Amino acid sequence: MKSYLVLICMALTYHLTAQTPVDKKATRKTRALYRFLARSSESGFMFGHQDTDAYGVNWKAEENRSDVKDVCGSYPAVHGWDLGKLGQQGNIDNVEFKRMHAWIKQTYKRGGINTISWHVDNPTTRGNAWDTTATVHNILPGGKDHTYYLQQLDLLAGFLRQCKAGWTRIPIIFRPYHEHNGNWFWWGKGNCSEAEYIELWRFTQSYLVQKKKLHNLLFAFSPDRSRLTMDSLRNADSLRLSYLYGYPGDDHVDILGYDDYMDAGVAWNKKSRDEQQHDLVAGLKMVSTLAAEKDKVAALTETGLESITMNDWFTGVMLAAVKADPAIRIAYMLVWRNANTRHHYAPYTGHTSERDFLLFYHDPLTLFENDITGAYR
Description:
By secondary structure, the protein is of the alpha/beta class. Helix content is about 35%, strand content about 15%.
């Protein structure tokens, strides 16, 4: 019944979804996915989970398994992946790239959606993504490390080109250089100028789309909530300006994303639960409204509460936030990975939040892989 109601709502809102990707040569299935994302945000929101197919709490690389699926019977609608350490056997979390290709293909064939981030190593020092040695000016055209950066882009393009099912290139939501308004990545604020960041984004996008002719990508922009000032959360105009730091422009972004762990119950945020909830709602409303004005899609591209220490987190925090204001329309939310019993963001069998997650799963507003059809039609 839930899937049937979702399909009716999506059909009724089809006329509201004229969005087209910024890549005018995007494949038919990529354009269809973009329209589907817009329709989803009108009728509910999809649930996503990082590395959900690759491993979970106390297991790794088991066929047809996901902690989320173990709990509710369905895969997440959105499957997150990362391409840090591309060129090696496995990524930053030891997911083998060969297996990743297979999981991406399986997700697509079931009708699910794939999103990819890129914790690429520092091209100047060869340190990891958290090596904040200034490098962006070195890798832009004319910089001393530009040739090396092109080699990294070629590796990236090679992986994306192989995301195929038969002759069809699988549509991918690509989320490069995320949380750039923070200072913890080499592409972050303080480690490069705003102008350099924008040039990096535009050059990277142009290289992948124009040079490498990858027309199966939707580009997601995703600042981090923790670097939006408290004052700006109470001033809509100021919040927008804060959010748009480093924005590459409407011709370069398909999805307005938002990474928010800060308002999700983390211990280091000393605000009360009610105050955090207010800020979570304000941020989601801002990105939803801005996306609507720009004819884009909004998404909560990363969130979660490590170890899910609040038993009602899924319904009492996330679902309640989306329901708090009709202006909030996000295509999906994605929680981070399930590494072990201390570091996980989705429930696993026997977790204290399992019952609450089932309530979240059965709510008509939430969409899992079992609920969605026609994402690529």
